[in-house]
């Protein structure tokens, strides 16, 4: 696992290829099957992006690409509620949640506007607005 959660289109997402083992599944397709069986619920929480393993360089034993899914935070939280708890899966779930939190905070810092308006500027804007108001009436 390189990066557990990645930012895709300014939104943290996780690939099912990166989480199936940590959630206690012996095969990736079992996790995909769970998501597909509950697809309506997952779609209520956002778009599910399909991709092939070859697109991200995941080698398959049979050599054939396998379909993966990219899930957002809300979809992962839903998935976590569906997975049977164990000591190992619980540790993985906590790690996954922390990684989503870290990336959301990082995105928020990058997109936080750095705007400071001095009281002098506010006073100038107020004067302009008052002048505009009086000119219109």
Overall description:
Helices cover 53% and strands 13% of the residues. By secondary structure, it is α+β, with helices and mostly antiparallel strands. It has one domain (5-136). A four-stranded antiparallel β-sheet has the order 1-2-4-3. A hairpin with a 2-residue loop joins strand 1 (5-8) and strand 2. The longest helix is centred in the last third of the chain and has 24 residues, at 87-110. It is elongated and about 75 Å long. The model has no long low-confidence stretch (mean pLDDT 84).
Question: Unreliable runs, pLDDT <50, ≥5 residues?
Answer: none
Largest sheet: 4 strands, antiparallel
Rg for CA atoms: 23 Å
Spatial strand arrangement across the major sheet? 1-2-4-3
- The structural domain count equals 1
Percentage of β-strand residues: 5-15%
What are the secondary-structure elements, in order, as H or E? EEHHHEEHHH
Shape descriptor reads elongated
Helices, by number, come to 6
Instruction: Count the E strands.
Output: 4
**On the 0-100 scale, what is the average pLDDT?**
84
Class computed from helices, strands and strand pairing:
alpha+beta
Helix content: 40-55%
Beginning-to-end CA distance, first to last residue = 66 Å
